[in-house]
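Q: Entry one of two.
A:
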Amino acid sequence: MVSGAFVGFIPALKREAFSSILRKYCLLLLSHVEINEADLREQAAKYGLEDEIDALLRYLETHGEVDDDRLPAWDEFQELAGEYEIE
């Protein structure tokens, strides 16, 4: 099941002005909670956000080794995670 906290972010992802800070917080949440990936992808499809969710998940799986300028450098993400005490 997709975390209720993350489901709340999904409609915000659809906004054209999806900010880098919102992406960072989505990454923090995805890295910290147990998520059923199939459920997450199903919810993303409802909003036409498959590419956005794919990018976030690929980023986390590869530790930032993605060619996507919408996402932070891995070191920047790790620093933010440290501020929130997320490993």
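Q: Entry two of two.
A:
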Amino acid sequence: MPDFRLLSKSFIGLGKLEETILLVAQKRNNEIKKNVDEYGVEFEVINSKTGFLISFSIYDKNEFLNTFKFNNNEYGCIIQINWSSKMSHEDIDNFMIPFIKEFGYYFPNIMVEHGEDKFITIEDYVNLNEE
């Protein structure tokens, strides 16, 4: 599964992330499933029309701090986003990218890990993928 990580200069708790993921999913008429296990919390956002999904694995505070140290105390990971490599371009363009874009409206300071030691805004990530 392809993936990318969202990073922040400060920790964002599960409650705020969950609230925002649920809000965006509901506004976009997507189904959502919450999975909790020994590895943490994951939200699956499912395109009701095609069945493809994107998953949001939430980093806890310790994982955030560990990645913060790894990234020269600049950014820590808050979410890892995964999706199927079999997802159609139509689903990427009409489901995943718009969802990420809308999610980014609520967290304008979140960055996307883009290559080794590079970080870009969600807006820049969306623009790269819309081209």
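A: Comment on entry two: Strands lie at 3-8, 31-37, 40-46, 53-58, 76-83, 111-113, 119-121. The longest strand covers residues 76-83.
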